[in-house]
Design a protein that fits this description.
The protein is an alpha+beta fold. The protein is built from 13 helices and 22 strands. The chain is 33% helix and 25% strand. The strands form six sheets. Strands 18-17-14-15-16-13-19 form a seven-stranded antiparallel β-sheet. A five-stranded parallel β-sheet has the order 7-2-1-11-21, with helices on both faces. The termini are close together. Bound molecules: flavin-adenine dinucleotide.
Length: 412
């Protein structure tokens, strides 16, 4: 039985190795000159391979496709991912928030382990698949420009009994995951749910020239999404035209399909308005003859205090003893809820992942086989499943591939 896998990324490599272990004749095609280009840049070059939390917790971190993904995570858990890599000789470590990394902190070691797992798989590099056609028996695979250099007997087309599309999303296109897999899926009549960026920086319509590079810890980003409130606590930073960092990336995954978004920042989430009022009164009392700028600098970084005062219409040069009660109220209200003008998300290429993809209604959640075309499968990020940061997305790639392999093999 010949299986062609399109894509030598996280999911394609996991699947390829599993299928050869059971005697399938597997060829992986990848448009790049090497495997795992996206894997290489994951986790800032350290590759956060999974998140060692329990299944319920895991599913809470899946933003889309949680129900569909349920059976896959039960058949291949985060612990199974750790065991899988450890069996291949990759020592792992668990960091804050159950994030699992290779002990070496090198994503290249994860790729090496996956290639070891694929020792019996033929991997055709520089082989971008442009078209797949269902033949009378199996599929014909056409490569772009007949550019395959790896195998003499392939001249632009290849025949397989089964095809798995594991081409990833369409963000960070330079890694090879350029969205061409969606075109392949569409050619078989599959619906592609709207593609939008996820885990992506947010653009603001604000003058941020003095704030670029400033990072804030222990703040809450609040979004009112079509009237519903979502609040995320942690770390963020300002970019040249917006905001990024952990809580911003996560928030993007919740607002990427919303019609109406209002954003604001709680700069003092640990304090209530009453506690802030007391603190301000104390500060004012002991610094009566200082400028208001002095008080604000005690509450936030200097560059932010200038931005803050401008937004609130406050005069930083004003003497503290001249600050009116109403102005004190404005300060407190804005410390707890500083509005930021939302200007959309960065483009899809800047997202850590792509949200949307092959419609889950048309894929079997156990075998990952297309419900429209027999012997055609989809695994990994091409599916309409996405999760937050923390190792969840790679676990989705590994678990969908494991389930696909297990159940493909169970079939006659
Ligand atoms: C900067 C960054 C950091 C990340 N960090 C993490 C992290 O630490 N932890 C985590 O869990 N997730 C992380 N992710 C997300 C994770 O990398 C992806 O979700 C995961 O790689 C998806 O696996 P995949 O196999 O579906 O696709 P990919 O890994 O993207 O692989 C797809 C492969 O298909 C090939 N391909 C595409 N089209 C074709 C075609 N037509 N013909 C032939 N080959 C084709 C591509 O060249 C590519 O090699 C990160 C993503 C980015 C961009």
């Amino acid at each position: 039985m010949k299986v062609a896998i399109i894509g030598a990324g996280a999911s394609g490599l996991m699947l390829g190795g599993l299928l050869t272990q059971k005697g399938y004749d597997v060829t992986i095609f990848d448009g790049n000159e090497k495997a795992g280009k996206k894997l290489y840049i994951t986790g800032k070059g350290r590759c956060n391979i999974t998140n060692l939390c329990d299944t319920d917790e895991f599913l809470k971190n899946v933003v889309r496709g949680e129900k569909f993904f349920r059976s896959a995570i039960y058949s291949f858990s985060p612990q199974d991912t750790v065991d899988f890599f450890e069996n291949l000789g990759l020592i792992t470590k668990v960091e804050r928030g159950n994030r699992v990394f290779p002990e070496s902190d090198k994503s290249s070691d994860v790729i090496k382990a996956l290639l070891k797992h694929c020792k019996d798989v033929k991997i055709m590099y520089n082989s971008k698949v442009e078209k797949i056609v269902k033949a009378e028996k199996g599929f014909k695979i056409f490569l772009k420009n007949e550019n395959s250099k790896e195998e003499k007997n392939v001249k632009g087309d290849y025949v397989a009994d089964k095809v798995v599309i594991a081409t990833g999303g369409e963000s960070y296109k330079a890694t090879g995951s350029d969205g061409s897999g969606y075109t392949l899926a569409k050619s078989f009549g599959h619906k592609i749910e709207k593609l939008v960026p996820a885990l992506c920086p947010i653009k603001l319509k604000e003058d941020l020239k003095d704030l670029e590079g400033l990072s804030l810890k222990n703040v809450s980003l609040i979004a009112e999404i079509d009237g519903k409130k979502k609040e995320l606590f942690g770390e963020m930073l300002f970019t040249d035209c917006g905001i990024s960092g952990p809580i911003v990336l996560s928030m993007s995954s919740f607002i990427n399909r919303a019609g109406n978004v209002k954003l604001s920042l709680d700069l003092k989430p640990a304090l209530t308005k009453e506690q802030l009022e007391k603190r301000l009164l104390r500060d004012f009392d002991s610094n009566k003859n200082k400028n208001l700028s002095y008080i604000l600098k005690g509450l936030m970084p200097n560059s932010l205090s200038i931005f803050f005062a401008k937004k609130c219409g406050l005069n930083l040069e004003k003497k503290v003893h001249d600050v009116l009660k109403e102005e004190r109220k404005i300060i407190i209200d804005n410390l707890k809820n500083l509005p930021l003008i939302f200007n959309g998300l960065y483009p899809i290429d800047a997202g850590i992942i792509t949200s949307g993809g092959v419609s889950l209604k048309e894929v079997n959640p156990k075998t990952f086989e297309s419900k429209l075309v027999k012997d055609l499968y989809f695994v990994g990020e091409i599916l309409d499943i996405d999760a937050l940061t923390g190792g969840f997305n790679l676990q989705i790639a590994f678990a969908t591939s494991y389930s696909c392999a297990k159940n493909m093999m169970a079939l006659p």
